[in-house]
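In the laboratory, one determines a bound structure by crystallizing the protein with its ligand and collecting diffraction data. In a computational setting the workflow is compressed into a single prediction: the sequence and the ligand go in, and a structural description comes out. We illustrate the idea with V0V.
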Amino acid sequence: MEKFVSPTRIDHIGIACFDLDATVEFYRTTYGFEVFHREVNEEQGVREAMLRINGTDDGGASYIQLLEPTRDDSTVAKWLAKNGEGVHHLAFGTADVDATADGVRERGVRVLYDEPRTGSMGSRITFLHPKDCHGVLTELVTAAPETAGGGTAGH
Ligand code: V0V
Ligand code: CO
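The predicted complex, in structure-token form:
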């Protein structure tokens, strides 16, 4: 068994919304949080805005990830139809998403992808089934090397 690689920080909290621009505006006017990065992830069926909240002592950063579905059959669209707007998932940052996912899988938690997929800002991501995580859809993230320093990449 390989050595387990624990996550070291909260990378982001994913929040599902019906109107991305209106939600971005709420976070800007209420808290002063600015958009750090925007992208569309067609594979995941989301249009997203990343609001960078703080750097972390491992050189990474923590974000709020605002998510609007791009199509009716996406996971976020399905979730919004059932629950309305709100907190959709929690994402832990790890230096090695492959090793962390393997270790979590060995502990009996369902990892949703055989191999990590592409996430925000070129990160590598996978998800753990919420039913195995006490009701929390949990994402594991390793930042792309160029953004791991918490620098200005992604604008
Ligand atoms: C579903 N369930 C949840 C949940 N989504 N529980 C907590 N949090 C969530 N977000 C519960 C749901 O209430 C059901 O429980 C049960 O799981 C099965 O749900 P379902 O509605 O039948 O939906 P499924 O099974 O079709 O899909 C659920 C999973 C799906 C988790 C498998 O959402 C998935 O593959 N998620 C991973 C991908 C994803 O979410 N991508 C969007 C973010 P009851 O009612 O039976 O008790 S993309 C992203 O974060 C990116 C790009 C990034 O960070 O870079
Ligand atoms: Co996410």
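The helical segments are 20-31, 75-83, 97-106. Keep in mind that any predicted model is a hypothesis to be tested, not a measurement.
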